[in-house]
Amino acid sequence: MKFKFFFLSLFCIAFSHAQTRTTDKNNIGWFAATGTFNLSEKWGLHTEYQWRRDDYVENWQQGLLRVGVNYKFSSDVLFRVGYAWAETYPYGEIPLNNFGKDFTEHRVYEMVQLGHKVGSLSLNHRFMFEQRWVGRYTNALLTSEDDYVYLNRLRYMIRLQLPVYKKLYAAVYDELFMGFGENIGENIFDQNRFGALIGHPIGKNIRIEGGYLNQTVQLGREVGGKNAFQKNNGFIISGIFNFDLYKSEDAAKP
Question: Which of 27, 117, 217, 229 has the least CB density, counted as fewest CB within 10 Å?
Answer without folding.
Answer: 117
